[in-house]
Amino acid sequence: MTIRLATDQDAAALADLARRTFHDTFAATNNPGDMALYLAQAYGVEQQAREIADPRVTTLLVDEGSSLIAYAQLRNDHVPACVTDAGAIELWRFYVDAEWHGQGVAQRLMASVRGEAKRRGAQTMWLGVWERNERARAFYQKCGFTVAGDHIFLFGTDPQTDLVLVTSL
Ligand SMILES: CC(C)(COP(=O)(O)OP(=O)(O)OC[C@H]1O[C@@H](n2cnc3c(N)ncnc32)[C@H](O)[C@@H]1OP(=O)(O)O)[C@@H](O)C(=O)NCCC(=O)NCCS
């Protein structure tokens, strides 16, 4: 297993992994129309190519053999009001392919994410997690994140409550 920064060559494989993992995670618990709308907005080769090229975004990929099995993206964008460190960096996306859950991939990726976030000068990392995503919440708690507040995440047409979690780096 190798963890590395994405390059423009990875856009198509990342778009495919990102769409699949998002669908696998949220399809069973959400309206298909909202899912279709969100997938069309968020994922596609051009969209992921733009993200990889964006200097405000760091994209980390996990390869196993010739396949991408996980990815994470850090983003310097806005900081929610409930996060007291105005210089906090966002862990924007963090997804492991379902067949690799529970095998330590997520822990290794989180260690690399922390390293990249510190390299970018951050002392705090924040993220939004759907209040009903129990597995992710348990994982982030194990990683030392705590609840700072909440915010609304627009999933298609459905405004959902995301918990805002923070951790020191
Ligand atoms: C979130 C994610 C990265 C965590 O990686 P992982 O390999 O599954 O994590 P782990 O198995 O180490 O930890 C998950 C914990 O949740 C527990 N868990 C599993 N299902 C659960 C559930 N339904 N409710 C509560 N806890 C649950 C596991 O037992 C484990 O805790 P333990 O180690 O104390 O037993 C991975 O599950 C994933 O990619 N999920 C889909 C994408 C996603 O939700 N991303 C986060 C978006 S904010």
Write the layout of secondary structure elements.
Elements (H helix, E strand, L loop, with lengths): L1 E4 L5 H16 L5 H11 L2 H9 L3 E8 L2 E9 L13 E8 L8 H15 L4 E7 L3 H9 L3 E10 L2 E11 L1
Parallel strand pairs: 4-5
Antiparallel strand pairs: 1-2, 2-3, 3-4, 5-7, 6-7
Helix pairs in contact: 1-3
The structure holds coenzyme A (COA).
Textual characterization of the structure:
Strand 6 and strand 7 form a beta hairpin. By secondary structure, the chain is an alpha+beta fold. The two termini are 24 Å apart. The protein contains five helices and seven strands, in the order E-H-H-H-E-E-E-H-E-H-E-E. The site of coenzyme A (COA) has 15 residues, from helix 1, strand 4 and helix 5. The site of coenzyme A has 15 residues, from helix 1, strand 4 and helix 5.
Question: What features would you highlight for this structure?
Answer:
single chain; 169 residues; alpha+beta; seven-stranded mixed sheet; binds coenzyme A
Helix fraction by DSSP (H/I, runs of at least 4): 25-40%
Q: So how many helices?
A: 5
How many β-strand runs? 7
Structural class category: alpha+beta
Residue runs with pLDDT of under 50 for 5 or more positions:
none
N-to-C span = 24 Å
Order of helices and strands: EHHHEEEHEHEE
Portion in beta strands: 25-35%
